[in-house]
TrEMBL record:
Homodimer. It comes from Algoriphagus aestuariicola. The keyword Acyltransferase does not apply. Keywords: Cytoplasm, DNA-binding, Metal-binding, Repressor, Transcription, Transcription regulation, Zinc. This is Ferric uptake regulation protein. The keyword Transcription regulation applies. It comes from the Bacteria. Pfam families: FUR. Belongs to the Fur family. Coiled coil: none annotated. It is found in: Cytoplasm. Its main location: cytoplasm.
Length: 159
């Protein structure tokens, strides 16, 4: 969960970005930062989830504004967008972002983040092999939940 100093830093970066783009600085856009940055660092959220969360808190904001603002946050480097398999786009805050990879459970849809130095070794070796300066990568592992009494899976069962 972000502290208020981090949120203010994100807002300042976003404000400067909007000015350079010649875009409007609306309270709704900045409220999206508030809500995205109060999420735990490892949480991913889609537009609908963010929309419902904000509506439940009394914000009057449209889905279109959320979509557009998230696109601007990605463009400004304040959010990261992920597309996992058949899921809708998910977003996470990026100001304190450290590169990581993901594991997605096919059953319960839980997303787990991980980092492994061996992946960087492979990335460097492939860069040498292909004579390429690898600048980024994306690795998503998909698996079947084998956790007994998985809370995420139980929450999805229809009774």
């Amino acid at each position: 969960m972000a502290d208020s100093a981090l949120i203010e830093k994100a807002k300042k970066i976003f404000e400067n970005f909007l000015v350079k783009q010649g875009s409007r600085k609306t309270p709704e856009r900045f409220s999206v930062i508030d809500e995205l940055y109060i999420l735990p660092e490892d949480e991913h959220i889609d537009v609908e989830g963010l929309f419902l969360k904000m509506r439940n808190k009394g914000y009057t904001i449209s889905r279109a504004t959320i979509y557009n603002t998230l696109d601007l946050l990605v463009e400004s480097g304040l959010a990261v967008k992920h597309q996992f398999k058949d899921k809708v786009a998910l977003y996470e805050q990026a100001l304190t972002y450290k590169h990581h990879d993901h594991h997605v459970c096919n059953q319960c849809r839980k997303i787990r983040e991980f980092s492994d130095p061996k992946i960087n070794e492979i990335k460097e070796a492939m860069g040498k092999n292909f004579q390429s300066a690898i600048t980024s990568h994306s690795l998503v592992l998909y698996g079947d939940c084998q956790i007994e009494n998985c809370e995420s899976l139980i929450g999805q069962q229809i009774f």
